Amino acid sequence: MNEAAAAVLLYPQFSEYELSVALSILMQGGKPILTAGVEGGPVKGEAGLICIPDTNIEDLYHEEIDSLVLPGCMDIMIIADDERWTAFLKEIESRMTVIAGISSSPLLLAKAGLLKGKKYTAGLNEQAREESGVFEKENYSEDLVVEDGKIITARGRGFIEFGNAVGEALGLSFDEGWYKG
Amino acid sequence: MNEAAAAVLLYPQFSEYELSVALSILMQGGKPILTAGVEGGPVKGEAGLICIPDTNIEDLYHEEIDSLVLPGCMDIMIIADDERWTAFLKEIESRMTVIAGISSSPLLLAKAGLLKGKKYTAGLNEQAREESGVFEKENYSEDLVVEDGKIITARGRGFIEFGNAVGEALGLSFDEGWYKG
């Protein structure tokens, strides 16, 4: 059996830079990835890169993956209203060893119930977090990256630290110096 | 007439993270981009993102663009041996106001003659630079980012500073705080 992959969720308007260092560290560490959209067809990132996901969340065999990486997204409210994403997260949670979401994507994790009782951060302001009605206020942290059990959350400007945290949580070996200016 | 775009060259094994902050800054500043491959068809980045270029360098109207961004690439020697890339760079140089290459991509600029008499840096070690036979040794700099006239070159780990330099050279307004951990 092949080594389990990290699934990287690609929704419209995903943030390329927030994802890029985590992707590079997965590559450095030899961790296979499977990018996954919904429905099929190309997905355009917020900065204009048009990507073809390797697969769709509907077609992904859960045995193929052991971890999830969620980029931020300009239109996260739209993505969060699409129940296919949250249903997928609920279904797959127990099989995953690492679930990592940066910037606005912790909203998806919260909506799917994956942040219950967990410390987290998110690149959403207090008003947005409260209005969403899905975040536990008392467990919010201002830290750049927060790890609680299998859940890693990060603020967007912590995208390098987020990548490092994902790599370390997966036990990968990689050179952090690639990303240090 | 629409505002001229920045052309972003996408070759096989391009480095997603090295490009990502520059792309994000172009987006923040409202600068249109055109990603360009050769031949058509998807292009896979070094960390596994499969991208569809907006166009090909053969089909790009030179009037559509005023600047070039070149990501690094694991296989730059192969790309540099493909004369379509260097021919394109030679042809288009005089029309461009900014030509920016990070990591290994200054090799393409040097091979096309664009670094003649210019200060530059590159993410290639001394042996690789010498063996290529296209770099002027006396104009090499160890700096993370080097600007000389319209040419911007950078080392890979300076990808955030590279993005900032591209944005500033194009006179864009953007918030650097997005990328500061």
Summary of the model, kept short:
Chain A is α/β, with parallel strands linked by helices and about 180 residues long. Helices cover about 30% and strands about 20% of the residues of chain A.
The total count of helices of chain A amounts to: 6
Largest sheet of chain A: 7 strands, mixed
By secondary-structure content and strand pairing, the structural class of chain A works out as alpha/beta
Strand order of the largest sheet of chain A: 5-2-1-6-7-9-8
Please report the distance between the alpha carbons of the first and last residues of chain A: 39 Å
| Assembly annotation | homodimer
How much helix is in the residues of chain A? 25-40%
Mean pLDDT of chain A: 96
* Count of distinct strands of chain A: 9
User: What percentage of amino acids of chain A are in beta strands?
Assistant: 15-25%
Task: Report the principal-axis shape of chain A.
Answer: globular
Biggest protein-protein interface?
Answer: A-B, 34 and 34 residues
Given as residue ranges, the uncertain stretches of chain A (5+ residues, pLDDT < 50) are none
Radius of gyration of chain A (CA) equals: 15 Å
